[in-house]
Amino acid sequence: MPIWPMFVCGVLMVVVALAAIYVGLSTKHWPTTTGKILVSDVLVRNYYGEPTTSKFYRPWIEYEYRVDGKTYRSKRLGNFLFFFGNEEFAKRMVARFTRDSEVKVYYHRRFRALAALIPDIQQTGWLALFLTVGIVISISVGQQIFLEHPLWCSLAYPCVGAR
């Protein structure tokens, strides 16, 4: 089985992660406008499973903002905000962005419907990069361990003694 498809897949994952991180880091340099919070609530979902029922909490925040006379609506808080059902985080976001309050909205210069209330990448954003890099490394190492076929043998030159 050729290993180059897995290598290409890993490279594409890294490129997508780096592009997303670039967008996240650039958010703090986006132009800003004033927006208004329309909805600010904690969304609770029940997940039924054995042996217990678990709850998933998510901040539900909708806002609108105007750019060059056009009104936009968004629910996006920021980049790489992973909630993982955390009740404390959801309540903290709802307390920070209360209904009918005015907020600073960061919007993309070109794609103005792309906006965020929290600029920059949050700490969990780096988790996505490390996870992606870890997956790529795991694939490379896994190939060598489980297939007993070193990556460099098929990419650069035939290895002596390789199966």
Provide a concise account of the structure shown.
This protein has 163 residues and is α+β, with helices and mostly antiparallel strands. The chain has four helices and seven strands; from the N terminus they run αββββαβββαα. The strands form two sheets. Strands 3-2-1-5-6 form a five-stranded antiparallel beta sheet. Strands 4-7 form a two-stranded parallel ribbon.
What does this structure look like?
The chain has 163 residues and is α+β, with helices and mostly antiparallel strands. It has one domain. It contains four helices and seven strands; from the N terminus they run αββββαβββαα. The strands form two sheets. The chain has a five-stranded antiparallel beta sheet. Strand 1 and strand 2 form a beta hairpin. The longest helix has 25 residues. It is flat. The model has no long low-confidence stretch (mean pLDDT 77).
Question: What's the arrangement of strands in the largest beta sheet?
Answer: 3-2-1-5-6
Coarse shape: flat
Task: Classify the secondary structure makeup into a structural class.
Answer: alpha+beta
Mean pLDDT: 77
Radius of gyration: 22 Å
The number of helices is: 4
User: For the report, how would you describe the main beta sheet?
Assistant: 5 strands, antiparallel
As residue ranges, the low-confidence spans are none
Distance between the termini: 12 Å
In total, the number of domains comes to: 1
Order of helices and strands: HEEEEHEEEHH
**Estimated share of beta-strand residues:** 25-35%
> Helix proportion of residues, in percent?
25-40%
Number of strands: 7
